[in-house]
Automatic annotation (TrEMBL):
<keyword id="KW-0808">Transferase</keyword>
<keyword id="KW-0418">Kinase</keyword>
<protein>
    <submittedName>
        <fullName>Dephospho-CoA kinase</fullName>
        <ecNumber>2.7.1.24</ecNumber>
    </submittedName>
</protein>
Length: 196
């Protein structure tokens, strides 16, 4: 069984996924795969540099992800172009990883901030939303990523609104309290997913 785990920026998706992994679940992180497919030597990187220009490449040959993020979140047409190049490649690699992991674990999590927006929810049997209020999203992301508040709001605008994400969820973890509170919810859902 594949569970799609999603949540807004700064909601704690990775922390929740790690808690499930500690209990024996497997997980694949779409963000990690998204970084892989634009590494030097990958076809997507060449297409991106051809489209946006060499100024989006760092001296070491890697993609300047912060500069590209800033550019595409200012221009929805450019963001759509980028997604048309990256999303099919991400999906293909995700499927291969999920298939491999499903042979080894009782269930597998597909961790994706854009699970619903990208159509990746079609790959899963259930959806799990990690939820926190907007003010917690903002404070955690400011502390973690060192980006501007304006850029965080642009990222939030590209994600499904909280209410819509919650309406699409089969299961929800409230990650607005301490780690122990989160782990109790993970343990309960782990038992439930194993029973399914």
């Amino acid at each position: 069984m594949i569970i799609g785990l999603t949540g807004g920026i700064g909601s704690g998706k990775s922390t929740v996924a790690s808690a499930f992994e500690a209990l024996g679940a497997g997980f694949v992180d779409a963000d990690h795969v998204a970084r892989e497919i634009v590494q030097p030597g990958e076809p997507a990187l060449a297409l991106i540099i051809d489209h946006f220009g060499a100024n989006f490449m760092r001296p070491d040959g890697t993609l300047d992800r912060p500069a590209l993020r800033e550019r595409v979140f200012q221009d929805p047409a450019q963001r759509r172009w980028l997604e048309s190049v990256t999303h099919p490649r991400i999906r293909e690699r995700l499927m291969a990883r999920l298939t491999d992991l499903s042979r080894q674990a009782p269930y597998v999590l597909l961790v994706s901030p854009l699970l619903f927006e990208s159509g990746q929810d079609a790959l899963v049997e259930r959806t799990l939303v990690v939820d926190v209020p907007a003010e917690i999203q903002l404070s955690r992301t400011l502390a973690r990523d060192g980006v501007s508040e304006e850029q965080i709001h642009a990222i939030l605008a590209a994600q499904l609104p909280r209410e819509q994400r919650l309406a699409k969820a089969d299961d929800v973890i409230d990650n607005s309290q301490d780690q122990a509170h989160m782990r109790r919810q993970v343990e309960r859902l782990d038992r439930y997913y194993r029973d399914l």
